[in-house]
Amino acid sequence: MKKNQKSLDLDTARVSHGSGYLTTNQGVGVNNTDDSLKAGKRGPTLMEDFIFREKITHFDHERIPERIVHARGSGAHGYFQVYENLSHLTKAHFLSDPNLITPVFVRFSTVAGFRGSPDTVRDVRGFAVKFYTQEGNYDIVGNNMPVFFIQDAIKFPDLIHSVKPEPNNEMPQAASAHDTFWDFVVNTPETMHNVMWLMSPRAVPKSYRTMEGFGINTFRLVNTKGEFKFVKFHWKPLLGVHSLVWDEAEKIAGKDPDFNRRDLWENIENGNPVEFELGIQVLNPEDEFKFDFDILDCTKLWPEELIPVQKIGKMTLNQNVNNFFAETEQIAFCPANVVPGIDFSNDPMLQGRLFSYLDTQISRLGGPNFQQIPINRPLPKVNNNQRDGMHRMTIDEGQTSYYPNSLNNGEPHAARDGESHFEHYQEKVDGHIIRERSASFRDHYTQPAMFWNSMSDWERAHIIDAFRFQLGKCKNKNTHQRLVDMLGNVDPVLAQKVAEGLGATPPANATNPTTAASPALSMENTAKSPKTRKVAILLGDGFDKVQFNAITSALTAAGASFDVVSGKLGPVMASDNSTVECTQTYATTAAVFYDAVYIPGGSHAESLKGLVGVHSFLCDTFNHYKTIGLSGEATALLSLLRTGQKEEPGIICEPATNVASYVGNFLEALTTGRHFQRKIS
After folding, report:
1. 538 and 513, same structural domain?
2. Residue 93 and residue 385: Cα distance in Å, rounded?
3. Contacts of 110 by beta carbon, 8 Å cutoff, 6+ apart
4. What residues make up the catalytic site (predicted)?
5. Which residues pair with 161 in a beta bridge?
6. Do 214 and 329 have their domain in common?
7. Which of 300, 394, 580, 676 has its CA 20 to 30 A from that of 410?
């Protein structure tokens, strides 16, 4: 049977990429696709590296118009203020005047999924901030994890290709639990540190408001004397760092794919500003080589116990966007967007990002004039000789569009002394043009071991379960064994536990290469507050109004909120014949959307006992380690859980004869958040 013409055309396009050496698109052989061309092993990446430029350019233009990575995001406006004059460190004007208010726009995002994917998948989260300073736009483009998977930007297409849906069937969506990602990991040991973070609770943040942000790469701060210091940037949430548990994240993905963006939007709409402190780690240039890691290696963090984080200012997000597409979707971030006083290091990942982000934006936003889109416009006047191009939005007047010129009296002129302008730090570079990586980048296991050593028991349990789940989704048994063998270089207990879950063989010579720990890495040590926490109050006709009023007044005073949940919308009658309006039903909401559940006493308790919705609320709240409050007659609802729950952590179960004492205990448990000491069934 003859094939139709469409099939014949497809046949001619098919290419088998099997054995044989790598080539460029021009057919030129390539013997190293892991390292960009640099001036010396630790030097800057060279623009003449046509192999890097071809590979990254093709990657940047693979998909339009959706972002290739960080496609699903949410944004908000706000402002930043520095705490004190930092002119001794940097000549950046917005960091030198505590009275100056700098507008900002922040975009939070996932990495791997398409725009339509859920918010709560296990993934790295993007955390990008645009400062609209008086000297031009400055961007800190980072993630919610302080390290990255790879050391050189030339490998970025390989990383993302591996974690994206597999090309033969475009599955799975927004997930790393599949063969190609883990095949890349076991063949790329430098990924191990970021993989440890990805398997930790940090990969399923409770909200954008409660996750840290990191600039990841090493930069320079330069002052007016031309002196520099190395710097890393941190965003610390004032509400602390909090996560979901995995079962909860999976259920939310099905019940509300917009969970994180809805949380951000609703809190700002409700007058709860989102606050982060900007912190910096500062390193003197003479200390560049004093550590057992390379400060230019973005797969390594700078332990806060060695190089403290100095909190230098606060960012407040207090305004939602007016048009999601015009603002959140069209905003363009780039680590090359710097202002005088902030400069680059020779971090090979950063060096590649300086090219790739701009290249991507030209493709995604329709040409070289994307800076003229309102959300991307700087505050100072743009004054140069760039003209025309797709989507030009300004009407540029005058005869000249070049410099130098005489016809326009030499204007616009090159910035003179006393006029704000950017000057690169004059670093001496001396080295052979070479495609190789510095030997100082070769330790891939000491910091992952430090991360493991720093975790609390519940965080370690989460990491083990995450590895088991992720690798359990992979069909290739060889990948299972190779990953377990890699974990043997991190910690023997970790390798043993993961091997048990996968049916793999624990490595015989597993060892933890360090005794070091960094308490700052554990979420156990984060800030905790009842502010903006949300409580579901389950009611039926006949509830105790005194107990209800006491709890709701206390929640409001503490900055928390609540929903009244019942079997149907409308008024619910209290024992004193007054009513309270029900705002949610068991069909429209679920326990996963709340931080705690409370049921006051009253005759309604008996009727609640037989409702499936109540049983579901209590069981999910219990199994997700959240606070349960039962008072008066509602204490009988303990029978919906397994026996003996009264003594479990986070179960506030009292007759409520002393209402004030009960309310205090409930708020204390709510502030704690999760009660991981609890033994769940």
Report:
1. no
2. 26
3. 70, 71, 72, 73, 117, 119, 121, 123, 124, 125, 126, 174
4. 70, 143
5. none
6. yes
7. 394
Give the DSSP H or E segment for 434.
strand 433-434
Instruction: Collect all residues with Cβ–Cβ distance below 8 Å to 675 and sequence separation of at least 6.
Output: 625, 626, 627, 648, 649, 650, 669
Q: Are 497 and 464 in contact (CB under 8 A)?
A: yes
What's the pLDDT at 9? 43
Please report the pLDDT score of residue 244 as a whole number: 98
User: How far is it, in rounded angstroms, from Cα 370 to Cα 330?
Assistant: 8
Residues 514 and 548 in one domain: no
- pLDDT over threshold 60, residue 7: no
DSSP helix/strand/coil, 570: strand
CA 102 distance to own-chain centroid: 23
Q: Flag whether pLDDT at 292 surpasses 80.
A: yes
Token digits of residue 610? 């037989």
The pLDDT-based confidence of 5 (bands split at 50, 70, 90) is very low
Instruction: Name the active-site residue from 70, 193, 480, 675.
Output: 70
Same domain, 326 and 264: yes
Q: Which of 77, 137, 143, 444 is catalytic?
A: 143
Residues placed in the known binding site: 67, 107, 156, 353, 357, 364
pLDDT range class, residue 2, cuts 50, 70, 90: very low
And the tokens for 15? 């290419």
Which has more confidence, 548 or 22? 548
**Amino acid identity for residue 539 in this structure:** L
Say how many residues make up the chain. Answer: 681
Q: 89-93, 229-233, 420-424, 482-486: lowest mean pLDDT where?
A: 420-424
- Lowest mean pLDDT: which of 282-291, 341-350, 434-443, 640-649? 640-649
Instruction: Kindly tell me if the per-residue pLDDT of 1 is higher than 80.
Output: no
For residue 647, pLDDT over 90 is answered with no
Alpha-carbon distance values, 107 to 201, 209, 276, 333, 638 (Å): 21, 12, 14, 9, 43
Residue 466 belongs to domain with CATH number: 1.20.1370.20
Annotated binding site for heme: 67, 107, 156, 353, 357, 364
d(CA 567, CA 569) in angstroms, rounded, equals: 7
Residue 282 has pLDDT above 50, yes or no: yes
143 is known as an active-site residue? yes
What pLDDT band is residue 14 in, cutting at 50, 70 and 90?
low
Judge if 580 and 472 occupy the same domain.
no
Return d(Cα 230, Cα 582) in angstroms, integer: 55
Phi/psi at 653 (5° precision): -125, 100
Percent of the chain with pLDDT over 90: 79
Domain count within the chain: 3
Nearest residue to 303 via CA among 277, 286, 281: 281
Confidence of residue 8 (pLDDT cuts 50, 70, 90): very low
CB atoms within 10 A of CB 513: 15
pLDDT: which is higher, 58 or 362: 362
Burial of 480 (0-12, 13-18, 19+ CB in 10 A): buried
Query: Residue 319: which domain range?
Result: 38-155+204-376
Last residue of a domain, one of 346, 376, 406: 376
Least Cα distance to 591 among 642, 534, 634, 651 occurs for: 534
| Cα four-point dihedral sign 350, 53, 158, 130 | positive
Contacts of 32 (CB under 8 A, 6+ apart): 435, 436
Could you give the dihedral angle defined by the CA atoms of residues 67, 185, 299 and 425, in that order, rounded to the nearest 10 degrees? -50
Q: Is 61 a catalytic residue?
A: no
Count of CB atoms within 10 A of residue 526's CB?
17
